[in-house]
Amino acid sequence: MYTENTPEKLQALQNIRCFVLDMDGTFYLGEQLLPGSMDFIQKVNESGRRYLFMTNNSSKNAPCYVQKLHRMGLNEAGDGHIYTSGQATGQYLNAHFPGKRIFLLGNTFLAQELADFGVTIDDADPEVVVVGFDTTLDFDKMTRVCDFVRAGLPYIATHPDFNCPVENGFIPDCGAIQAFIEASTGRKPDAVVGKPNRPVVDGLLERTGLGKDQIAIVGDRLYTDVRTGVDHGLLGILVLSGETQREDIPASPTQPDLVFGGLSDIIPYL
Q1: Is 195 annotated as a binding residue?
Q2: Which cofactors is this protein said to need (predicted)?
Q3: Catalytic: 213?
């Protein structure tokens, strides 16, 4: 059960060298920066630490998020500040299926991210199936991916989210596509890469070159952001600036290591 931030818990922040930040609900909300976000980035930089934005959304690549951050005034942000589930999937494929040809259910942004990791896409004679958040999905693609999954090819998904929040509600995300495939083929993915799963943590450790005790995962969702940290030995920090409310914490199976109202509330402890 979560207890309020204690001096012992807060002391763990002193060892953190990289803050891995969720974006919507943590750093910004929709198209607006959350109060204190820029102050937090400034303090992280001044203290000699790093920050990295991490997202499960595999329908966009790093430059898409860099452009958005620039529109909001974070002009120092570059591709190196973004970590997507697509990038983590590229790392996973190189580690577990090096040189294998893949069938990709995904849009051009995901295809480019995988190509950046040297992954070969082959829609005709693949050896592995990769399913992402495909915003160009059509019935022909669904039929083909189900054929390959039904044939028994290794089957990897970029992330588990069933819905993606948009301005007027939600749209079906990668998890919903996986549910369609399971209904047709009887198979779930052999591995799901994105948070809160182990492959994205392994990729994060490789990407940063840091130890688990040097990384904090910060986000507004207990079941994805915070769970990624606490389930895998990283510091899991909840901010109450987005989806989760304080009254949600006691009943959650995932209990955060630390809780703050927003990013700026972390500043005094850095």
Answers
A1: yes
A2: Mg(2+)
A3: no
